[in-house]
Design brief:
The protein is of the alpha+beta class. About 20% of the residues lie in helices and about 35% in strands. It has a single domain, classed as Nucleoside Triphosphate Pyrophosphohydrolase (Alpha-Beta Complex). Helix 3 runs antiparallel to helix 4. It comes from Ruegeria conchae.
Length: about 160
């Protein structure tokens, strides 16, 4: 797992992997959007725009915003949620992104917890994605990335 708390994380930096020359490496930021319902955490998953696979909101780092601020912005744009975003990463996962010029890139995604306080029906990508709440275990089973699945499965909610 690409977890920020493991010894592996030091070897999985964008800079270190870029030097390996295999693929270009980019850093992204993601929001693990959650709520507490009946005393248990629920995680919000959204679909990708094209393939309709289940993911969490994520995107490229935004100039002038920190990684957690970027995660919160992506949560608004892609899922229509507002809330309190934690400043400490829960961990990191990696995936290979196929870009429009058909060149692949390795993306390292830092995941930040976002306690959902408000959910809107009108938001920038409302007509392009579906969204659904799941238990951590069910959310884990729905995503294709094993590293993200491990982060979701191990999520127990945070102080909000």
């Amino acid at each position: 797992m690409f977890d920020g708390r493991s010894g592996v994380a030091g070897r999985l930096s964008a800079e270190g992997l870029s030097l390996s020359g295999a693929l270009p490496v980019f850093t992204q930021s993601a929001a693990l959007c959650y709520r507490i319902k009946c005393g248990a955490p629920e995680i919000l998953l959204i679909t990708t725009r094209r393939a309709q696979r289940w993911i969490i909101p994520k995107g490229w780092l935004i100039n002038g915003l920190s990684a957690p601020e970027t995660a919160a912005r992506e949560a608004w744009e892609e899922a229509g949620v507002l809330g309190k975003c934690g400043t400490e990463s829960l961990g990191r996962f990696a995936y290979v992104k196929k870009r429009s010029n058909n060149a692949s890139a390795l993306c390292l995604v830092d995941v930040f917890p976002l306690f959902v306080q408000q959910m809107e029906t009108r938001f920038p990508e409302a007509g392009k994605r579906r969204r659904k709440w799941h238990s951590p275990e069910k959310a884990s089973a729905k995503v294709s990335s094993p590293e993200l699945a491990a982060l979701l499965d191990g999520f127990g909610g945070h102080t909000h």
